[in-house]
Structure formats: C-alpha cells, structure tokens
Specification:
Blueprint: H1 16-30, E1 37-38, H2 50-63, H3 79-90, E2 102-105, H4 108-114, E3 125-129, H5 133-141, E4 148-149, E5 152-153, E6 157-160, E7 178-182, H6 194-207, E8 210-214, E9 240-245, H7 246-250, E10 258-261, E11 267-269, E12 275-277, H8 278-289, H9 295-303, H10 307-333, E13 337-340, E14 346-350, H11 355-366, E15 368-369, E16 371-372, E17 383-387, H12 392-406
Parallel strand pairs: 1-15, 3-6, 3-7, 7-8, 8-9
Antiparallel strand pairs: 2-10, 4-5, 9-10, 11-12, 13-14, 14-17, 16-17
Helix pairs in contact: 2-9, 3-9, 4-5, 10-12, 11-12
The structure holds D-malate.
D-malate binds at residues 41-43, 109, 132, 186.
Length: 407
C-alpha cells in the first residue's frame, strides 16, 4: 500500500500565491471586460538589463559551436560567477566570504525550502510572523510541527513582527535551533540595523542556533547604515547561512538564478555530539540532487557585476523604489498607515479591516490585486502587502482605482 507523507495534510489546501492566482483567474474569467492590475506576487515586469541580455546572447552562441560548447557544469556553479559574487557582494562590504563557500542554484525559494532537510527532524524552529510562507510550509512538510491550531502550527516559536517592535523581532528569551530571518523583509519591507542583526548573531552563538538569513531583497537597500549581508556582522560566519537571488536585483524571475552561502566555519552536531561541516553536508545534497544552473544563465548573472550591469541593476531597483514611493504617498492620502517601500519593494498597509475582505474589495471594485496580510501569518491580519513591481503606468492607474474604491 502506498502511504502519503501525512504531514502534508496539516498544510492549508494551497500555497498562498496559488490561492490568490486562483481567485484572480476566477474574477478575470467572470469579468473579462475589466482587466486587473497585479500588485500581488512580487514578480518583476521590466526587461532584463542590457548587460545580462548581451551575456546571454554571447553564451548562447558559445553553445552553438563544438569548440566552445559546454555540457554539465560544476553543480556548485562556475568559478567565474562564484568569484564575482564573493568579490562584489561580500568582500567589497568587508564580509569575508570565499568563492567556494557559494552554491549557485536556480532559486532562493528552492534553497530556502530545501535547506531544512539536512537538519534533524526534531529541531525547534523560530519563524517571524508575518512571514514568507515557504519557511513554514517546508518545515510542516518535514514533520517539524504539530497541527495548525487557530492559524498557528504547534511547536513553532513564532516571532511577532508588529508596529510595536518596528517589524523587527528581537531574539526571544527561549532557545531555538533554526531561526529564519528575512531583511529587507518580505512582506513588511522592514530593514534591520547592524545592532539588531548583531543581537541575533549573539543569540545564535549563545544557544548554538543557526540563522537562515534571506537577503533576496538586498539590492533595494538605500540607507547606507543598513547591512546588506549577515556576514557584515562579526561572528556571523559561524552561525549563519545566507540566501540571495537574481530575481529582484536583475529581473531573473523567469530566467532563474540564485545562490546560497554556507561558510566553511559553520558546524552542526551529529548524533554523537561531534561538530560536522554544514558546508560539506549541503555540498553532498546539492551535488546529488542538482545539476547546476544553465551556463548562459550563469553568464547573464555574472554580467550583473560588470560596470554596466551594476549601473543598470541599480537603475532597475531605483525604478521600482520610485513606484514604491508613489504607493506610500497614495496610501497616506487615503489615511492608511503603511511601512516599507523605502529600502524594499513592498509596502505593508494597515487597512484596519479583515485582510481578505480588503483584498476582495480591491479586486472587485478596483481590479487591483494585492496580497492579504493574513496569508503571511496571524500578525498580518488587518494588513495587505502592495508590491511595487509593475510598470509606472500600471502603478499610477492602480493607485487612482484604489483611491476611487476606498474613499
Ligand atoms: C513574493 O511575492 O513574496 C515573492 O515574489 C514570492 C517568491 O519570491 O517566491
């Protein structure tokens, strides 16, 4: 008899963004005369930077000739990309990360979801609320939680992120083993200061915990005081894994490229209590289950670090941040309090009412898609997340429609 992984039965029926997509499809089928504007899932709309396109074309041409053709590449990524990452994303910011501590992959979502499988099933997980649902759902699938009771999985240590703490939870009094952190934050757009991150590194060192630091939105940081990487904090090399993505920095949501950093100094205990290398274990997993990112895609990612690529990707993020500013201003005019949008592409709006109800109102009356805060956790109730990823024209039109629907 084939039996299912019964932990899946604890999950909500569908993934948050799949649920939203289903509702939007139902609406557009019922009202094809009313086109919707999507400010829900954080999917980019602007084309790839010219430097990436040129690299993609050149690498594709290489694949067309026997002399330059490439088959399987290194599972961990080509040296040309790992060296550029180490130099520009870390060493240039004073963070000591070596190229061979970087694992190139096809997405931060996959890495952030898969990483938990190399750790013991009975670890205590600490997860912010509201939160990117992948962190929770993958631990539910792995059996690290009890059932969902009143919107929260038993066994998880939830870290409330609310207006009271500026949406940056402080380390709890209790110990946890794996701690998920995301800054700039999805969904609230909050950023963490050096001191706040240092408190987390200190917590991890005191409790032998591991920080899983999702920095997918790092390229939107404009405040020079805000760290871009957890490795800018002293001691983080021994207690943190960092996830990065080219999806938002360079518009790769459809191209797929990301990377995970696992310092060689990071260890976890085996059943006998001996320290083992997390890097070695992830390398074993990665090379067993993954065959590397396409060569032309890695060339396109490496182009992000050229002089033109850096200037073009900065302009891309600035463009979306310009949308974010317009969204914040428009919410302010409607008397709705919001945060985020200054160092992040998301605006977290306090709607003062049920978040799915507000989602339905915007969809039905304004034909604008947002993301209901309750989908990110209990603390997200009463909020919606508005994404700045769209054309200027669509953002302006959406804001006019929202103003008419809400006032
Ligand atoms: C989001 O909207 O939260 C993200 O785009 C989803 C993702 O990156 O997987």
């Amino acid at each position: 008899m084939i039996r299912l992984n019964e932990h899946y039965a604890k999950l909500k029926a569908s993934y948050l963004f799949a649920d939203i997509a289903r509702r939007v499809t139902a609406y557009t089928q019922a009202r094809p005369d009313r086109p919707v504007i999507r400010l829900g899932i954080g999917d980019v709309t602007e084309p790839l930077p010219p430097a990436c396109i040129a690299a993609l074309h050149a690498a594709t041409d290489e694949m067309a000739s026997r002399a330059t053709f490439r088959g399987y590449g290194p599972e961990q990524g080509y040296a040309f990309l790992r060296e550029a990452i180490a130099q520009h994303d870390f060493q240039a910011r004073g963070a000591k990360i070596d190229p061979d501590e970087i694992f190139v992959s096809d997405g931060a979502k996959c890495d952030v979801g898969n990483i938990q499988e190399i750790f013991a099933p009975d670890l205590r997980i600490a997860i912010p609320d509201p939160v990117y649902p992948v962190y929770i759902d993958t631990n539910v699938m792995a059996g690290r939680t009890g059932p969902n009771v009143d919107g929260r999985y038993q066994g998880i240590l939830y870290l409330d992120s609310t207006a009271a703490n500026g949406y940056v939870p402080a380390p709890p009094a209790e110990p946890a083993d794996l701690v998920y952190l995301c800054f700039p934050n999805n969904p609230t757009g909050a950023v963490a200061t050096h001191a706040q991150l240092a408190a987390w590194v200190d917590y991890a060192r005191r409790h032998s915990a591991l920080l899983l630091f999702d920095a997918a939105y790092e390229s939107f940081i404009r405040d020079p005081q805000i760290p871009h990487s957890i490795y800018e904090i002293d001691g983080a090399r021994d207690v943190a894994i960092e996830f990065r993505s080219y999806s938002k920095v360079a518009g790769f949501t459809g191209l797929r490229c990301a990377y995970t950093v696992i310092p060689k100094t990071l260890t976890a205990r085996d059943a006998a209590g001996a320290a083992q290398s997390v890097h070695a274990l992830w390398n074993r997993r990665h090379s067993t289950k993954f065959n590397g990112v396409a060569y032309p895609v890695q060339r396109a990612a490496a182009a992000v670090y050229t002089a033109e690529g850096r200037q073009q990707t900065r302009a891309l993020a600035d463009f979306y941040l310009g949308n974010a500013r317009l969204i914040r201003e428009a919410m302010g005019r409607l008397g709705l309090k919001c945060v985020g949008g200054d160092n992040a592409p998301y605006i977290w709006v306090n709607t003062g009412r049920d978040s799915w109800e507000f989602f339905d109102l915007l969809l039905n009356k304004a034909q604008v898609v947002c993301t209901p805060g309750a989908g990110f956790g209990r603390c997200g109730e009463g909020h919606v997340r508005i994404s700045a990823f769209n054309s200027r024209e669509n953002v302006v039109a959406a804001l006019a429609r929202i103003a008419a629907a809400v006032k």
